Amino acid sequence: MLVDAPQCPARLFRIAEVFPPSMNRLSSSFDAYTAEKRARFWLLLAVQTVSVLLLLWSATPIYRTILAAPGQKLEVMPGSPVVIVLSLVAFHGAYWYRLVRVPIVIGRHGMLLSHLAVFLGRLSFIFGGALFALVIYRHLPDLSQAVDPIQLVSRMLAMLAIQFSLFCYTLELERVGTAMRPAG
Fold this sequence. Notes:
Blueprint: H1 10-18, H2 28-68, H3 81-101, H4 111-139, H5 149-180
């Protein structure tokens, strides 16, 4: 609720002129606007989280296969590449839309919540980093058979796309953790 000019000091009156009634904290339109932004933010974060979980779940059989037979050519990759591709598309669609169009609107603040958000982001990147390290440091140097270069390049591009997605998710959770920090 804005105060009339004669009843408020000059400094507050100028601030009231800068912020129209639609942006007033007590205004119902501002609350509806904030609630809508908050809902969109949490929905997009949920899509990103489910996509990352699907990526990690899809990469687990690949990790186990490479770990069991390092240096051997994998004729058929375990798991479905469709799940990986759809997860990548869903993740990047939600991530880039959120980054460009939807601000981070956090309702609760707390140091513990902040730390948990950052921890989960880094943990997801560690899992992806483990797969990447296994392939680069253990599997590729031991390859003894000839490998189809097109297949090798396509698999490495898929691996880099997964790594990039996990990196973006880590950044997103770090932004969320920063926004959750209490002021002061």
